[in-house]
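User: quick one, fold this
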Amino acid sequence: MAVIAIYSMKGGVGKSCSAVSLAWNSAVGSSRRTLLWDLDPQGAASFMLRGDHKERDRARAMVAGTIKPEKLIKPTDIDNLDLLAADVSLRGLDRLFFQIGKKRYLGKLLRQLGSDYDRIILDCPPGLTETSEQILRNADIVVVPVIPSPLSERALVDVQMFLDSSGKKHAPLLPVYTMVDRRRAIHKQSLARKPKWPVIPMSSAVEHMTKLQQPVGSFAPRSPAAQAYALIWRGIEKRLAKDSAAKSG
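Assistant:
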């Protein structure tokens, strides 16, 4: 089992669309048993995967241990892809982690869930919080969507500095430029500074994900955005395979 977190300090950078698209590639492209765990109280990823809106105020209770995960995990319309949906109760998740005083609690939950899945995709809440810190410590790879602008790039640097300053082990960060419009000078300048970063182009297909409530790979597989997400996922799989070989060797 491997955990791939989709995280950003800033909102509005395409984080949830990236989480859903990568989860689809895991389930469909790689035929992995995949769970998308939506930890963002806004629940955008849950909405795009048509999560059950009748289950309210139970996501935090599952983390607290009063509800078993299997009671909330639901299959999606996509083969190999299950959803652990978010709700507004997750706004109190940081307070819960402080109350129980367990720095490694989220890691324990992930290991329990991992017995049934090959890949767990986390759609993380924005900001640098106790929740996000636990996620960053327990993920195998952290995908960081970055809009090609100085302010968004600065947020990434802040996260890297925070993680490095603690001296503790953390997952490698994989920055991904999102919402890229190559006609804009500021975007072209950012891409020139970081030419090796993966790029997700500005795309009407991605915008339609919320309207159609489907991953972009389902309804527009030949679109540049869908192909870009597929390429990123193949890179993640190669990275995970390399890390697994290194550990076993």
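User: anything notable?
Assistant: DSSP finds twelve helices and eight strands in the chain.
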